[in-house]
Amino acid sequence: MCVDFSSVRGDFPALAEWTYLDNAFVGLMPRQVREGYDEYLDLWYRFRPPGDSTILQEWVAKASLVRGMVAKFIHVEPGELAYTMCTGSGLNIVVNGTGWQRGDNAVFPEWEHNPLDTYTTRRHGVEPRVWRPRGGSFDLSDLERLVDDRTRLVQVSHVSYVNGFRLDLGEVSQVAHEHGAKVLVDATQAVGALDVDYVGDGVDYVAFAPYKYLMGPSGLAFLYVKRENLAGLTPDRTGWKNQVWGGDNPEEASNMESAEKFEYGTLHFQGVYAMERSIEYLEGLGIKKIERRNLGLAGRIHDGLAEKGKVVWTPKPRSTIVSYFQEDATGLASRLKAEKVKVTGRKAHGDHIRVSVHFYNDEGDVDRLLGMVP
After folding, report:
1. H or E segment and range at residue 155
2. Beta-strand pair 205-208/19-20
3. 190 and which of 57, 120, 158, 273 could share a cystine (Cβ 3.0–4.6 Å)?
4. What DSSP assignment string belongs to 204-273?
């Protein structure tokens, strides 16, 4: 079935005012996701838990339902998916739960938003090894030289937040697994924008937040732990939800054989209700169609910038993000914002503008931006 993407723009009130091309920073929210927030508030505000359920039981049941929806969306099992509070929380669960020994090493690309050099790795004497970029990309041969039999963890972003470079996770997994290392992925710039297959890629852990391309809440995120890794990864904190003490627990305990064992306390249940609407919306459009739409728009930006003589930092787009070098990038971003055109301008990594699309953008958005680029 063909999707008329122009028809969805009315679901995003901000688009009536903005040329919004900053989805790698924060995604826009459709009215349907706001309705999810309202459903949660109405349930609590009017106190209407159904039947004999407590309101907490109703919230937990919704969380279970949505866990299954998100798991299906990324093609994993519900028991492999944990709720967290942010991408960094999921990454830290893995890092803190790994049995490090002095002399181990951890490998990560230079541009990671959450570099794998932490208080935990430093306390255990873990050597950080940095995978340096070559121009706008990372060469697998450089990774092969960094990983050895003392590498415990390779952490990468599926899509770089800096310039949108998209790694081949299957190749990364092969290099890591040949030496017995695990692969940890930050997928926040990928899930919801691209058709992902983390089981097929063979990665061990994936952390992602929904407030960008999933158009979901902040303060809620997810961690995928491949089933074979569940037993060997120790939760780094405990609470009522994953109680280990043998005394009474008035609440229903988590399934300690699943990724729920990493959930230690009360979840961001309002975000869970919003997340349900987000997944319903994206499933209704189809992620394969969304990816095609996104790559087409990103390609139009890439080609348009090149035609204007700009130094485009992003290789031929395989994600939603296109970055190019621009003098006074932060100043230009501010001037564009004053004209209701939203992009990111940064001095870090060299003055550059980052443009990031999503399916609700159109060719008119792209052309307006290109017409304003000096």
Report:
1. strand 151-157
2. unpaired
3. 158
4. SEEEE-SSSTT---SS-EEEEE-HHHHTTS--S---STT--SSS--SSPPP-TTSGGGG--S---HHHHH
pTM, entire model? 0.96
Cα separation, 84 vs 88, whole angstroms:
9
pLDDT (mean) for 271-280: 98
Q: In the predicted model, is pLDDT for residue 136 greater than 90?
A: yes
Residue with tokens 């000096």: 374
Cα separation, 343 vs 167, in Å, equals 23
Q: Is the pLDDT of residue 349 over 80?
A: yes
Q: Which CATH architecture has domain 40-282?
A: 3-Layer(aba) Sandwich (3.40)
**Which CATH code fits 286-372?**
3.90.1150.10
pLDDT of the residue at 245: 78
Query: Nearest-CA neighbor of 339 among 29, 20, 23, 6?
Result: 20
Helical spans, DSSP H, in 147-212: 169-177, 198-201
Q: What mean pLDDT, rounded, does the chain reach?
A: 96
Task: Report which of residues 50 and 325 the model is more confident about.
Answer: 325
The domain segmentation of the chain, as residue ranges, is: 40-282, 286-372
